[in-house]
Design goal:
The complex is a heterodimer. By secondary structure, chain A is an alpha/beta fold. In chain A, 22% of the residues lie in helices and 33% in strands. Chain A is built from 5 helices and 13 strands. In chain A, strand 11 and strand 12 form a beta hairpin. Chain B has one domain: Aldolase class I (TIM Barrel, Alpha-Beta Barrel), CATH 3.20.20.70. Chain B has an 8-stranded parallel β-barrel, surrounded by 4 helices. The radius of gyration of chain B is 17 Å and the shape is globular. Classes of the chains: A alpha/beta, B alpha/beta. Chains A and B meet through helix 1, strand 8, strand 9 and helix 5 of A and loops of B.
């Protein structure tokens, strides 16, 4: 069985560590923005840093929106990291309202700005809601992971929330619907615990 | 809710790790890659890499940065010699999460505005070095070699107005001396502006760090000598802080 993982290149931020993390878990990486590379892969990772509207514009410019939605409909596991998680939503309010991929119901809003300064930057504890989820295999509850963000995913259906964290407000740290996962923090920057989460995602359905 | 980030700083020149006192007396302190591997193994919160020769040498060694970024599964901030948006983009490509700009930020405020707009406030750290002269504090650039004759508070206000969200503040008088941080200026900066402050320069023992956090309410600090010349490790420091009711990642 092919073990190729597509890391979507839509020109947003540092993806070096995401690629490294996938390779360390023993998988082959295709880092690409070509539509043809959506064939012959087993999973998709959407990385990303920066602004929602910019990311969506990039995806549309590369004409990848439909391709990602189609893959999701076919049951392809997808992992969105940070901004890559946020664009799974219906729409985002950053800069101009823009329409997201609509794969998990909800919208992306700014965190509260008090009492702590934005962005939410640094290590923070993540509390699992569903400890038995396969994503959490061999990862302990309430460990610290590295966050950098000012916006959060406001889930419409609370059952899509797999884990939460707190910064000025409680917000979803990990979300999930079918085989689509979104992680607000950076697992690829969170040492062993983070790498384990990525590995667990890659092993889903095997 | 917010955990204090303890950030070891690795200074280097050419491709060796160096250490100095008051931005002078630079000495080779060992292998760069070895230092980075050790911090990575110890699972530190973050790392800052600063090339102290890059501004003078007028080049950034992207290949070297690429190599050491490959050792890191934690956030890294890279600085030294950054002049353009292309430089920043290239640094992200080789694995930097955030970049730290000093001289160019001072000389070209429009550049910093553009950098924030292009890459986001969370991606840009402005580093400010300052020194006390006749009871006033002045900003220095080019690795502390040039006095700008601009006072610290005036410059910090300007950075704040520009929309900078993170400032690494280094007192050159305290740098490498291991006799405590410059509490007064760090507290002032952290409590009076919108940006976060990464305090730098002066940690000699655990108490120095605790004093800093208690007096300035700071949530990020960088250390270097303390981890090199004492038995203290990032983890033992965080355990001590935690015993004193400071929220850290252990």
């Amino acid at each position: 069985m092919s073990k190729k993982i597509l890391v979507v290149d839509y020109r947003t931020g540092n993806v070096d560590s995401v690629i490294k993390a996938v390779k360390i878990a023993g998988y082959e990486v295709i880092f690409s923005s070509e539509k043809k590379d959506f064939d012959n892969i087993v999973k998709i990772i959407l990385p990303g840093q920066g602004a929602y509207d910019y990311a969506i514009k990039q995806l549309d410019k590369l004409d990848l929106r439909q391709k990602i939605i189609e893959s999701a409909k076919k049951g392809m596991p997808i992992l969105g990291i940070c901004l890559g998680m946020q664009i799974l939503s219906d729409y985002g309010s950053e800069n101009n309202n823009s329409k997201g991929l609509g794969l998990i119901e909800g919208n992306v809003e700014i965190l509260r700005e008090v009492p702590n300064k934005l962005p939410h930057l640094g290590w923070n504890s993540v509390k699992f809601k569903d400890k038995k989820n396969k994503l959490f295999f061999n990862v302990l509850d309430e460990r610290d992971f590295y966050f950098v963000h000012s916006y959060y995913f406001n889930c419409k259906n609370k059952q899509n929330i797999l884990a939460t964290s707190k910064y000025n407000i409680e917000f979803p740290a990990i979300i999930n619907k079918d085989l689509i996962f979104g992680i607000q923090f950076h697992p690829e920057k969170s040492h062993k615990n983070g790498l384990k989460l990525i590995e667990n995602f890659l092993k889903l359905n095997e | 809710m917010s955990k204090v980030r303890i950030i070891p700083t690795v200074l280097y020149n050419d491709n060796v790790a160096v250490r100095g006192k008051k931005f002078n007396n630079w000495r080779v302190s060992g292998s760069l890659l070895q230092a980075i591997r050790l911090y990575s193994l110890r699972e530190v919160d973050e790392l800052i890499f600063l090339d102290i020769g890059a501004t003078k040498n007028k080049n950034i060694n992207f290949k070297l940065i690429d190599e050491f970024a490959d050792e890191c599964f934690m956030p890294i901030t890279v600085g030294g010699g950054i002049k353009s948006l292309d430089d920043i983009e290239e640094l992200y490509k080789v694995g930097a999460d955030r970049v730290c700009v000093n001289t160019q930020a001072f000389q070209d405020p429009v550049f910093i505005q553009d950098a924030i707009k292009t890459f986001g406030t969370q991606s840009i750290v402005v580093s400010v070095d300052y020194k006390k002269i006749n009871s006033k504090f002045f900003v220095f650039i080019c690795s502390g070699s040039i006095n700008t004759n601009i006072e610290l508070k005036e410059y910090l206000k300007k950075l704040n107005d520009t929309g900078v969200k993170e400032v690494m503040l280094t007192s050159m008088d305290h740098d490498g001396m291991m006799n405590g941080y410059d509490l007064k200026n760090i507290s002032y900066a952290n409590l009076n502006y919108d940006f976060r402050v990464i305090a730098s320069g002066g940690a000699g023992n655990k108490r120095d760090v605790l004093d800093l956090i208690l007096s300035s309410k700071i949530d990020a600090l960088s250390c270097s000598s303390i981890f090199h010349f004492t038995e203290i490790t990032p983890l033992s420091l965080k355990k001590y802080l935690s015993e004193n009711n400071i929220n850290t990642r252990i």
